[in-house]
Amino acid sequence: MSSNTTSIFLFIDTNIIRQTKSDHDAVLLDTMGKKPKEKQRDPRLFFRYDTCWAKDKRAKVIIKHSWFNRADNTLEKIYGIRKSSKNDLNKGLVVKIDISKAYDRVEWKFLETVMKNMGFADAWINLIMKCVCSVKYVVKCNRVLTNTIAPERGLR
Asked: What would the pLDDT profile of 4-25 be if each residue is shown by its tens digit?
């Protein structure tokens, strides 16, 4: 991994771990390595995941009831949760779902547009898009490396 590749992640310490019996090197990403500087506009300080997650016990009951008493269709379950929460005082509700197969088809431009429409800060969107779009592949064919391949969709 070149220094150019790792330098775009300003707040992540990167260390390359050399492998003796492999043709690949592991890259250790330490997200807590570089601390934000005081009195500076650090994008990590603006987003708080815990403020987005439902802490209210009533919200958890609504989610549990809607999730287990609906059909197998995930969209139908989410609709039921949203419908139940609209009648309650707690209208801000986030649902966390593991949809790993759907990530294979996510176009990166679509992800960026969705984040903009949801009102995320530009600094946050740029940081996420750098993480997503920094993936590059090189294929070895007949002992010769090809040009760099930059995918345009899929999240892993």
From this structure: 555 555 556 666 777 666 666 6
Number of Cβ within a 10 Å radius of residue 93: 19
Question: DSSP H helical segments within the chain, as ranges?
Answer: 3-7, 49-52, 57-68, 74-86, 100-103, 108-117, 122-133
Domain map (residue ranges) of the chain: 1-33, 51-86, 101-156
The vertex-24 CA angle with 20 and 28, nearest 5°, equals 90
Q: Which two tokens stand for residue 68?
A: 């287990």
**pLDDT: is 149 or 13 the higher one?**
149
State the burial class of residue 59 (Cβ atoms within 10 Å of its Cβ: 0-12, 13-18, 19+): buried
Task: Provide the whole-model pTM.
Answer: 0.31
